[in-house]
Each structure stands twice: as structure tokens, then as C-alpha cells.
Amino acid sequence: MTAPVIRLDGVGRVFPADPPVHALTDVQLSVERGDYVSVVGVSGSGKSTLLNTLGLLDRPDSGGYRLDGVETTGLSDRQLTALRGSRIGFVFQSFHLLAYRSAADNVAMAELYRRTDRRRRGERARAALTRVGLDHRADFRPDKLSGGERQRVAIARALLGEPALLLCDEPTGNLDRANTHAVLDLFDDLARQNVTLVVITHDEEVSRRAHRRVRIEDGRLQEETP
Amino acid sequence: MSRASMRLPDLCDEALAGVASRPVRTALTMLGTVIGIATLVITLGVAATAANQIAGRFDAVTATEVTVLVPGQPEPLVSWGGLADLQRLNGVHAAASIATLDTAGGAHVRANDVHDPTTVTDRALPVVATTPGLPEVVNADLGQGRYFDEGHVTRHDRVAVLGGAAAKLLGITRVDDAPAVFVDDQAFTVIGVLGDAGSGQEPGLDSSVLLPYTTASDRLRIGTPSKVLIRTDLGAAPLIARQAPVALSPNGHASLSVVAPPDPASLRGGVEHDVNGLFVVLGLVSLIVGAIGIANVTLVTVMERIGEIGLRRALGAGRRHIAAQFLVESGTVGLIGGIVGTSTGIVAVVVISAVNGWTPVLDLSLAAGAPVAGAVVGLVAGLYPSLRAARMRPVEALRAGT
To answer: Which of A118, B173, B218, B335 is deepest in the core (most CB within 10 A)?
Structure first.
């Protein structure tokens, strides 16, 4: 049996304030390869802190976090950055596409900080765009794309290099209903292709599409049984 | 685990894309550097051109003239024969000693012995005793006839050569019928008339009567040389100016004074130095202003691109990658500014030279070095904004940016 993609073991995160804010308290979470997990919660429930912790953008104060079998607590900043670049694909609410680059260039950016060969990068970027159904938009700039198309470009970028984990932060927060459905359909496709998905959202409809639902409230995680 | 890494071509691509994404802003940012570099190139270029021009006016003729002045008192320091020692020096092209007859206003010179009360036949003209090589030293042409030679000198021949103006005053137009002149009632045969006296070294020769020094000594009691005129090889003037007094008068060289042309190299250096000082300061000031401009705009750019920084960190960029990207961007802006400024400066120097009819002189190292200076300005200016971008925490950068 392979190691789980995510293994959080008693993770806690406290922000110094008066009184101290317990953003995460004794969080246990295990995500296997190919899981499609949604983390749902209202704002202020600790969603963002959990996302930052999972994305190696923030360090927990206590507990352990194994990503793809690698214990991350105790790694240096530089090692965390490298691990983040190679194992995690991010999808953000606000897309984070560079306005002055074509869709294909934006996707190719995912390989900038990895050791990959430069020559076939364009091909791989186009392949990733094909995977999200946007090969015909490869040379468009983001401002010529609809919101849903932009998010799919961002997903293609996150998929480049086959990361162990696709980490999505409110991926439909900026999208209308039709585009939301398009993105969620894409997530279903990816889940069928055995991509590990963690979607963090406050939207019940979005979270219902996931295979597993985890609710976060006041920094505590609770598995919901369907 | 492999460390995050980024290839140099990727870094350059990203930086160039960043620079090219805002062309108008980039162009305006460059302006300060362009002006600074252009000012420096124009300043140094025009200074070099002008200095070359000034040095060019000191033509080969004046640059090879050395005159040694011999004080008359208390005892003769230089003899007529001393010239031989001087001519042995390496770098002496020709030399001549001269002595002027010591009579206020000149001696009485007449062209014939007829006393005609109705015309003025007496002329008061300077009489100069010389060694044979004089015309070569002062670059004078012989208009007619010839100059006296060693033979005339040794034989104490009573011959004379007239300056062009002197011949005109005395009414002597041709020498083939051997006209005579009377100097203080001593008769001399005119064997030549100087044409164009080319040199400014001894301007009085044109109106003088020139005699072999032996003859002059016999007949007119002319003394030892009062002046030694030397024509040096090109570039040897400073050396000869130092050596000539010793060669002429080993014991009394300290009493001799030397008139030598200014050293062209030091002259050019002096001019360049004068012109440069002020404008170099101006150029540097505008470079500093340009650097501040780049720093300012890069800082604004960093603030605008916080989201992009966050994204890059999420994609696996380390702090050094972020710093490197912004450094290369500001360095590129500086480099392009430097190249544009250098080109502008060179064109300006050429135009200024063309307008003034000068030959433009451009230092190649200046043309190559100025763009580099621009790049350095850009790099230095980008230092603080880059560090600021690199220090940003990815969580906050992602949250703040769009």
C-alpha cells in the first residue's frame, strides 16, 4: 500500500493575539491517492489556514504533516518551496493568470522552477490545455477568455507535471452558475483519472460533488458521512 | 529531494516578458538613464574631439621648433663652432646659430655707393650673422640665388643674402648680375634673396641682411651667437629642449634659456580635463536621477505584482528566484537605457563634429562601457525593490494579489 497523499496528525496552528486565535486544533486528516475531498466551512472557520498548511505556505505550530510520504515539519524554507513546486498544483479563486501572457504561456509557467527540459515545454502545456478542453484557446490572452475558461487554464497549469495533489481554494468563487458547472464537471473527469483533489469551499453545492466531505468549524475538522 | 531550480534562459524570458508587458512605462523609466548616459557620452566624446582638434592646430612646424637664447654677458657661453656638438644629438634635424649686429635701429645699408641727395638711399636694416644652415632651420625658401655655404664661411667671403622685404627696400630684384650692398660702408655681394620666410621662429629675417658669421666678425665686429635655432625631428622637441643647452655650453648650460613648444600630449590632456569636469558631474547627477527613477518604478511594479509573486512562490519559486527576476528586469531596463543613451550620445557627437567641421573622435571603450554602466545603474536601482519582493511571504502575497 502506498503512502497517503496527505496525512495530518494532530495539527494545530495558533495565531498570537489577545486572546490567541486557535485557527486549527488537533486536526487529523488522511487523503489517499485518487481521493476527491471537499473541505467546507464558513469564513473564519479556519479554511484558509488549513489550505495554507496543506499547500506548504504556512507551517503548523504542532503536529505532523506528511505530504506524499515526506515529513514536512522540520524542512527548510528552500526544501518546502521545492516540495511545493513539485508535488502541489494550486487552483485559486482569483485564477492568478498573468494578463500579458497567452494561455499556453501561463500553463507553461508551472515548469519554470522545476528541472524539466525546455524544448518540449510548449507541447506539454498544450497537452494540459487539451486535458481541460481548451486546446483551441492556447494562444489567447486571459482577458479574451471567459471566467470559466480562465479557471480551466489555471487548472491546466496546476495539472502540468502531474502533481500528487491538486489543491483548490474556492475554485468557483468568481464564477457564474454555468461556468461553475463546467469546472465541477472537469473535477469529476479528473477524479476519474485518479487525480487527488482537495477543494476548499464555503459553497454546499460545490462540496456535495466531492466523494468525501470534511466540515471545518472553529478550527476543528469533522468527517461527514454521506 | 531535488532543490527548486531555474534555468538562466527561463529567468531571462520571464524578466523580458515582465519588461515588455508595460512598454510605455518601461520607456519612461528608461528616460533618466538614457539622458544620463547620453550626457556622459556627449561630454566625453566632444571633449576628446575638441582636444584632438586643438592639438591638431599645433602643426608639425611649430611642434619641432626649439630656440636657445644665449645671454650676451658677461662672457661668451656659446661659440660659433659649438653648433657641431649640437648637431650630433639624435633628434636634431637642422640647427643654426645667429647673432644680430648690436646697433640700435640697425646698420646703414645701401644698394650703391652713389650719394644722391634727392633720394633716400640709406636704409637702417638689421644685420644678422648666421651659420650656413639657416634656411633649412626656419623653413625659408630661397627666392633667388643661393644661401652661403661652408666654403663662403671658411673663405671669409664678402657675400650677403637679403631677406625678401630687405631686397625690396633696397631695390634689388635680381641677383644674377651680382649686385652689391654696402653695410656701414663695407661692400658685400648679394648672392641670394630669401623668398617666403616660412617660420615664425625668427620673424625679423625677412627684413634683414644676412652675412656669414666669419665675414661679419671681420668686417663688423659682430660677436658670438646670441641665439641658436633648432629644427628637431617630429616628437623630439621636448628631448632636444633638455639636451641642447648642455651640448652647446657644457659649463654654462644653466644660464641658457630654451624656448620649446608645449608638449602636445599634456596640452590635450589639459583641455580634456577642463571640458570634462563639469559635464561629467552633470552626467553623473542625471544617472543618479535615472537610478532613482528605476528604483521607484520597480518598487511600484513589485507592489502591483504581489499576486504574481505569490503565484510564483506557489509554483515553487524560491526567494532568490523572485529577487533574480526583478533584478534582471531592472538591469534590462538600465541596459536598454544605456544602449539608447550611448547611441544618442554618439549621434550627437557626430552631428556636433559635422556642424563644426571637426573629425569626431570616439573612444571605443566608452561606446562599449556606457551600456554596461546603464546596466549597473539598473541593477543597483533594482536591489531594494527585488529584496522587498523576495521578502514577501507567499500566503500574504497570494491573499493580497489578484
So the answer is: B335
